[in-house]
Amino acid sequence: MEDIEDDMLEEKEEEGEEEEEGESDGSENPSLLPFKPPSRATRLHIERSSVCSRAYFVVVMVFFHVYILNVIALLLYVHYNNGPGELVSGAGTPSASVGGGGSSVPHPAPAPTELQVQDHSQSFSLPRIEGIRVGHVQQVSLVPDSSHEMRTLSLKPLLFEIPGFLSEEECRVVVQLAQLKGLMESQTMSPGQGPEESNQPLLSISTEEVFSLLDLNQDRLLQKQEIVSHSRSRDGTWLSPDNLRQILTGLEARPAGLLTLEDFRRVYDMSQRPGQQQNGKLRSQFKQRNKHTWLYQGLGSHHVLQTLRNRLISLTRLPPALVELTEPLQVIRYEHGDFSNAHHDSSRSHSETTCAHTRLAGNTSALTEVSCRYLTVSFYLSSAEEGGETSFPVADNRTYDEQALGQDGVDLIDTQETCGRGNLRIKPTAGTALLWYNHLSDGRGWMGDLDEYSLHGDCPVRRGVKWVANSWVNVDPDHQLQVRYQRLVAQRHKAKSTLEEAYQPLSHSDLHQDL
């Protein structure tokens, strides 16, 4: 037994010696060692470090993209809040033009229920609808869940027709409000017409008496300031801008800059001649015969009138604060034979004139106040049985030549005689609205020069009665002056509101509580 155990121990010792020899041989020859794969602990360590580096890269990229998006969003926010197109924050509408067929004019926010006192220091522009081409039809959104067709009638001037702008009931209400207010005669005729057609002259005094009235210091010499002192009249009762310009030109031609009675008589008589020839151009005196009145559309007015104003804001996409400070709605009644000669609704800009609506913030040294109307919206309230068309004599002419208005004894200004010769005539249809721009764009989003092609008039009514309403949007060609005017009106409204609140009388309930 002991011998067997000794043999087994010897065999184990021999096997141990062989393993030690094999290890020593392997250390001396590395190439003979068998391939040993990496341990599991080592492999797991490598995989964990790779996963961590990938996750770190993804997190960094995500944060980088979020940062870039935030920067872009901030830039867009600053651009759209400070850029043009808004008169006041939150009140304006985008100034993008109406595009191709089927596009809709954006429907702005409803007009505020009270005049907002807001900051007008930001720059703003005047949106302008694109005409595309004559006959082009586009959809406009004027009332919720409904749209109207707007057709381009001409490009010079930019003129649109919108059928169904007013309902039959709305037309009836506006006519009744005008009748309730009372209509005034607006008859201005040429002095050369017969006594049955001509109106009484506005001035029934002689030239010598006019000279004496203007001669404030009674030195029998007229200075420029003496003439200007009686010329700041919006209606031009005795001196229109053209008449005044002629008189001042004659005064400046004198060496001493003074007019004697004889000098004044020659200059004044020439300026008062109607239909005079100047530089080969025919100048006709404006004539019209109709009855009209004015309807206030602000707070406290009839809801139909306020609806029309809000609808006009939707159509024109102009800032509500701009539209709310414009002229009241003019309502005109044309009876049999009534008409108005071709004329421009707005005026050219001159250094000696100032806009009537911004005179509070305007140049007090300006000689004459004139109407500055960016656009006109005319509403047909009835359909005349015959005649009464709105005529645009030179619409879409290749060129505008004032001399061409009166050739071969034909005066296109005189709608009584030459209405049928106009390039474009629009028959009045109840509920239809016309929109045209009286001024071109200055290329910078503001009002430019007068569009001479906007010359228009009303043909005589042959049978029936024609009711029409006119709404104008007043804008000063001087951008800064318009902003100053808006700010001044807002400040006055704020001061008035504060005063009314301070002196508001106590109601019966307040008195009861005090007692």
Give a verbal description of the structure.
Residues 325-475 form the Fe2OG dioxygenase domain. Its cofactor is L-ascorbate. This is Fe2OG dioxygenase domain-containing protein. This protein has 515 residues and is of the alpha+beta class. Among the domains are: 137-187 and 290-500, q2cbj1_9rhob like domain (Jelly Rolls, Sandwich); 208-282, Recoverin, domain 1 (Orthogonal Bundle), CATH 1.10.238. The chain is 34% helix and 19% strand. It contains twelve helices and 25 strands. The chain has helices at residues 2-28, 40-82, 168-181, 207-214, 224-228, 241-253, 261-271, 303-316, 320-323, 415-418, 479-502, 508-514; strands at residues 104-105, 137-140, 148-155, 158-162, 184-185, 277-278, 281-282, 288-289, 291-295, 329-334, 339-343, 353-355, 368-370, 373-380, 386-387, 390-392, 406-407, 410-411, 424-426, 433-437, 439-441, 447-450, 456-458, 461-463, 466-474. It has a ten-stranded mixed sheet with strand order 1-2-3-4-20-14-25-10-9-5, with helices on one face. Strand 3 and strand 4 form a beta hairpin. Helix 6 (241-253) packs antiparallel against helix 7 (261-271). The longest helix is centred in the first third of the chain and has 43 residues, at 40-82. Mean pLDDT is 76; it is low at 82-122, 189-203, 232-237, 274-283 and 505-515.
Topology of this structure?
Blueprint: H1 2-28, H2 40-82, E1 104-105, E2 137-140, E3 148-155, E4 158-162, H3 168-181, E5 184-185, H4 207-214, H5 224-228, H6 241-253, H7 261-271, E6 277-278, E7 281-282, E8 288-289, E9 291-295, H8 303-316, H9 320-323, E10 329-334, E11 339-343, E12 353-355, E13 368-370, E14 373-380, E15 386-387, E16 390-392, E17 406-407, E18 410-411, H10 415-418, E19 424-426, E20 433-437, E21 439-441, E22 447-450, E23 456-458, E24 461-463, E25 466-474, H11 479-502, H12 508-514
Parallel strand pairs: 1-2, 12-13
Antiparallel strand pairs: 2-3, 3-4, 4-20, 5-9, 6-7, 8-11, 9-10, 10-25, 11-23, 14-20, 14-25, 15-24, 16-19, 16-23, 17-18, 21-22
Helix pairs in contact: 6-7
